[in-house]
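hiii, so i know i said id send this last week but things got crazy w the move. better late than never?? heres the sequnce for the chain we talked about at the cafe, plus the structure i predicted for it. fair warning i was half asleep when i ran it
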Amino acid sequence: MHPLNPLVGRKVIFAAEDSFLSSYLLSGFRHLGVDVLGPVASADVLLEQARAMEGPSLACIDVNLPGLTPSHLDQLGGLAVQSVMFGVPSSGHALTNALLWPFSAFQMAQELASAVSAAAARKTP
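okay and structure toks below
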């Protein structure tokens, strides 16, 4: 892990329903040097991509992603994929643990870095 950027060397799957949001965030992530896979447009494809990944992995997931269920999130957790949820406040979902739009790619990267740090802290005896 890079000491100044914990996202260096990690693969991030980006799963979103909205094409504008996808292109905005993907551009920002790439500018920050994050290795991004996607966007993927369904929860099933998200799981397929996560299973195929090697090495440390993260996922940015739109709460409105077609087919997304708690089971998908549980399976990602079982694959040791740290996830950050995001969404639009008017989406009708309870977004208590999600990054709410509007936000920048930098803010999303900060959320991902926090997820990496939290996972590392859980592994430390």
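btw The CA atoms of residues 114 and 120 lie 10 Å apart. thought thatd interest u
miss u guys!!
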